[in-house]
Amino acid sequence: MATVERLATSLGVSLAVALLMCLAACGGGRSDWGVDTTPSVTDESVSISGTVAAGAPMIGTVEARDATGSRKQALIGADGSYRLGLKGLTLPVALRAVGFVAGHRVVLGSAATAEDLGAVVNVTPFTDLIVANVAGTSSEVFYDAPDFSRLSPALLDQARVMVTQRIAPVMTELAVATNFDLRRSPFAADHTHFDAVLDVVHVVVDPVARKAVLSDVINASSVQDDLTLPDDHEPLLAPPSGSYARAVGELVAIDAALGRLNALFATTVPAADDATLRALFDPAFRHSGLDLDAMLSARALLSPDSVGVRLVNPVIVSRSADGGRMRVRLQVLDTLGHAITYDQVDSDESEFRQDADGRWRLAGDRRMGDVSVTAVNSLALASGDSRRSLSFWVPSADAGVRYVGVTGPGLPPLRAIGSLGRFAGVLLGLDAGGHFVLLGDSGQGTGHTWLEDCATAATLAACIDFTSVPQGAAYTVSFYDAAGQVVGDVTTLTLPAPPLPAAQAQARAADWFARFVDWTPESFAALSRDASVTVTWANPADMAYTSMQAGLQGSGQLLWQALDAHATSVTLGTWPAAAPSEAPAAWLWVDGPADRSFAIVARFP
């Protein structure tokens, strides 16, 4: 594994686009509690429609699955709307939306019964929670093995009432109608009315613990939902009057500021000294180690590659108590309006600050370096060994940064690290090659960037206890100079979800991991200088898991390529040296929901 640890997150995209990415949202009725036995839909025009959103519209697809295993899909529009024809399906159907919301890969569930034909059926974090409460587990787990007897109007309505009770204080504060049906009432993803509820309340479901957490991101309150208890309906705390309206108004103002920024790059690249451009940035701007002058240069944001790229659909991550700062996630769109996403990019969050004139300005992620923390499940083909790890990746940092410290749930406790002093969590330092790697207790570089599960890494001095890592875990990141003094801001990274249990990932290998099919040349002995190397693979069976990268490393050489979403073959490049003495390491990297990654590791044949 050590041979590929630095590679799995190395992204060879143009600097400008990579930086842009870094900157870069009345039902019920039947009394029966059994399965709906409605015959198959035969009318070509019969469909369902609605909105797919989670603080911003989803970019992706909606799929319906019935009890026979038949499926239908539809694309989601730019405004989050969809229409899905149901001809040939037997109701009820389980719904699953897969795509990106503000740069993060998201899977959301919902359901439709015979009563919903021709009507609205939304797909949001709240419909996802409705299905989860009906199923007693996450909607994603349910969709993979659905029990359609649970998808009756009565059970769905019971769960809808329970979820509505939980968010009732939020709906009341935002003046959402009391008869609004979370699953069946129409709404627009425009930050008004019910959509404003999606802006200020986030839902995270833990499929392993079978629990969900609903969080008020404006007032820092939360409530837990035990999916195994059907009568569990504790509500969120009532918010301070006006707090949501102010926050949503600020989000709309930030969205407008992004619109002004996008307009400057619509057809050309503005000059670095353009007053309109600079007015959109906070003077103290700092992003992944770059200050404002470095960002506004031809090597970064002002590259020709930035023309036509847009930052859209901000989603609230957090807001300062005084309302003067807001941290948001952003979605990056290319010139065709397609979502730009790269695995292992956690810094698509950025802070906005309000100046004395009330204008919102981009302040960056506030970090002295580019840092990501990622949940990884890995599978070694040769041994069948399945493991889970936390990956720390620091591809670049300010010249004055010598160490990066990360603290948070599951990480090692306070301890001495060589002569550097006492640190909690993990410490990364520059090695002789200029790469940030994890430091061992001796203070020397380990050559690793992955921290393994303590359950399978008993021989290692440092490991991570995943039993202590919740959904949405927050990790604090500090940057240190050569003297061990903190430089720049101390910031946080959010891990949407820990890696899945190793046994579960191994059991679902065909669904979640890509698989090698063929290599050219056929053996590593034929890797002569300038030999073209091509790899063919099979993508994961589950469409929510997307192959992102393929690579090869050995004898000090590296070949890799980012992958198109539906590709099954790629030429990695030409081997730059003589044939290696042993088989190089090879990998296929897959991105899954909740920003989890799945790496298949093998040896060149």
Summarize the structure.
With 605 residues, the protein is of the alpha+beta class. Helices cover 16% and strands 33% of the residues. It has 10 helices and 33 strands.
Key attributes of the depicted protein:
605 residues, alpha+beta, 7-stranded mixed β-sheet, 5-stranded antiparallel β-sheet, 33 strands, 16% helix, globular, disordered N terminus
Report on the structure:
With 605 residues, the protein is α+β, with helices and mostly antiparallel strands. Helix content is 16%, strand content 33%. The protein contains 10 helices and 33 strands. The strands form 9 sheets. It has a 7-stranded mixed sheet. Strands 12, 13, 14, 15 and 16 form a 5-stranded antiparallel sheet that branches. The chain has a 5-stranded antiparallel sheet with strand order 23-22-19-25-26, with no helix packed on it. The longest helix has 22 residues, at 243-264. The protein is globular, with a radius of gyration of 24 Å.
